[in-house]
User: What shape does this take?
Amino acid sequence: MMAPAATALGFELRVLAEDEDVSAVSAVPTTPVGDYKDLPTLLDFSKGLDVMTFDHEHVPTDHLRALQEAGVNVQPGPDALVHAQDKLVMRSAIDRLELPNPAWASVADVDALVRFGDETGWPVVLKTPAAATTARESGSLPRRTRLRRPLTGSLP
Assistant: This one.
């Protein structure tokens, strides 16, 4: 989505695409295919860049730190990106800044989830702390009667 605007402003873009059929391949002339979870691929891709950024939060934070240590200008940096990668870090930061934040809690078992729902009201939304990549990692629980098993693996 940023390709037309960046090009109009005179910026040269390079995109590391995870597959040949992603839309970036047709939008940006310099689009090699590679694995963004592979540090050597990222280090090779970063050669000659003025700045490196990511369009999603799934790049491992350790890789971002390694890129910075190698002298790559990564923006936003890993200290910022972790807020998109971990919902508990994000919610805690919002609380520390005293910004509006929905009621939330870190729950590790059904009892804690039921307590939270009873205290704040049902329905509740349950999400994994790590960045969700599938619908099975978040879900709405309209009432406590849907809680029939431990909080492990996929959500109810």
